Amino acid sequence: MNVRDAVLARIAGLAPSARRSLELLSCTPEPIGPALLGALDVSRTTVGVLAATGLVDRHGKGVAFRHEIARAAVLEATAPGAEPELHATMIDALEAVGGDPSLLAHHATASGDVPRILRYAPEAAAEAARSGAHREAVAFYETALRHVGDDPATRAALLEALSVELDLTDRLHAAVAAQEQALELRRATGDVAAVGAAHTALAGFAWGAADRALAERHVAAAIEILSSTDDRRALGFALARQSFLAAWRGDAPQARRSGGRAARIADELDDVVLRTSASIGVALVRLLEGDLQGRTDLLAATDVGLAHRIDGLVTPPMTNVCHFDVEQGRFAEAEESLVEALRLSEQRDTPSCTAWQLGVRARLRLLQGRWAEAEQDAHAVLRSGDLPLGQLWPHLVLGLLAARREGPPVNPNLDGCGGWSPRSTSPAWSRRPSPRWPRTPGSPVAPTRGSTDPSPRTCSRSPSPAGTSRWHRCGAGCAVSPRPGSSRSGRRRRPWFRPRRTSPTSGR
User: Fold this and answer.
1) Which of the 8 DSSP states describes residue 56?
2) Is the pTM here over 0.85, yes or no?
3) Segments in 209-367 forming alpha helices (H)
4) Model confidence over 475-495: pLDDT tens digits?
5) Cα(149)–Cα(399) distance, rounded to whole angstroms?
6) Which residues, including other chains, have CB under 8 Å from residue 319's CB and lie 6 or more apart?
7) C-alpha–C-alpha distance, residues 50 and 279, integer Å
8) How far apart are CA 63 and CA 51, in angstroms?
9) Fewer CB atoms near the end CB (10 Å): N or C, the chain?
């Protein structure tokens, strides 16, 4: 006798009303509390009868199946075509007691109730996002999109929300595709403000895709479009994005101007989320100038994101803190900030930010001479990541390790790095380096080529001033060979980096 036959044998003697109650209970995997039992018209007497079968247990004043296999067997044994009606009955009961949107979305989908799917699946997705369950949010938005039909405004809104969740879950290319579809729908319906907001979102995605020029074009289009609308909040976020981009191209005046305009709009609207977003670009400028108040401001931005349950404002500022702690030689602080950042990213289900932070940690471990750990982090990012800019440090770390260990004639990790420079539309890096090693006070100097000595020496040379690292220094913080003709070079060496004002990688 199989499990299904054993279950059917136990329920064969149930009265029709009791069996109907058992079938209702079987259509949900969750325990059912007393309020919902009442809405389903399942009495205490009936619960006792069902418990006597050995298939269900009392849970306080509620009830649940003892084993999932038994629940599935009861549901499978219902009459053909009866299951959708069971789910519809469950929806009515859940609505009567104020049920969770995720449960309502589940039952609406199982019953084929499209209006309720379009009502509850987006609600469930939004709640999942606020709770830090972004992959669940993606699934709910995708469920809604499968049933939305030909309503362009509703489809566009769902695609926009989906794109945010796809980005946070490290699916950048899918996020771009969703947002571009939404943009076309907004254009078709003539929703000017939504078109501008879509350009703002695409600017952020272009930055993550290591295409700074495209990001700049999108944000410029957003500001131009939104300046002609009454949507001041959307304009504020476009200006905040422009401030961020300006900070990372080293344009401090523009970053401050755009951030200041966004902050004034936030003050007009009394919008703390917009005000915090506006502060990020200005905070980056402060850090680039060596002002540690910028670090404090980024940590404060993370706190606002946590308070408002907006993960797009939780982990990105923290990731920038980690980046600058390493970039500016605050290695002890970097250890602490990376622990906290990775904790938040795991807790809030934002694998794209986890990938960024692991890349930064790989760089830190390289500078500390902890090669095996650096290599492990770099490989972890490249195995899982869908964020081109986030793959920069891992490629550099692996390329430098290969160059130092074996010095291979072909080094694909370094040779391919040109595709990840957000500072220019053309590759910033076109030659393979002959790397030297860390020159940051207190950081280890790597062993000589081919050495297996696990005890690196410590360097005492002063670091570059904050914000002035140049591309004749490796992006991982290591000095590289002088350019041809340099007085420091006793012989010609192959060129690698042209000088640049700042490091190109900001973090998410």
Assistant:
1) E
2) no
3) 212-226, 232-248, 252-269, 272-288, 293-308, 315-327, 331-347, 351-367
4) 454 543 333 333 333 333 333
5) 49
6) 341, 353, 356, 357, 360, 507, 508
7) 59
8) 8
9) N
